Amino acid sequence: MQLVFASNNLNKIKEIQSILNGSIQILSLEDIGCHEDIPETADTIEGNAILKADYVTKKYGYDCFADDTGLEISALNGEPGVYSARYAGEQRNSDDNINKVLEGLKNITDRNAHFKTVIALNLNGKQHLFTGIANGKIIQDKKGTQGFGYDPIFQPEGYDETFAELPLSIKNKIGHRGKATQQLIDFLNIV
Predict the structure, then answer these.
(1) What is the pTM of this model?
(2) Which of 100, 104, 79 is CA-nearest to residue 91?
(3) Does the annotation flag 5 for ligand binding?
């Protein structure tokens, strides 16, 4: 089976390909000649995943899937949420985003948070949604060099390491994107 993954984020593509382990051939947006920025104007994580999947299906005619991910922090009323990638501005700088989160949590003891990934799959004219959640907390300082985004400050439940310190094989099993992707795989195996 061949599906377009509506992303040009090389980190996400690598993570998804690792989870899929060759069971599905993934094409990136670049592979299909899509070089424009797909609008992410929805006010929910689900909405952005749907927008991206629908854009590729309508404009290019491919069955595809798209994901959107947000970090939701209890003490910050669910922020950064749908704005996670551009929390500190449109430049989408991970260090700036992390610093804004840490500044917002200064002197706050409730550091509970979760990552949420929603995958929208457009397949054979129908749409399906899959959601993965990883619970954890935000630590005081960055740790680790693996991963991307907020991984250096997110410590998943049951672990002493951050996502940025854990091997990709463990992150894929316990992480939000891995959980949503596993639901996608399970679904595709019965279609």
Answers:
(1) 0.90
(2) 100
(3) no
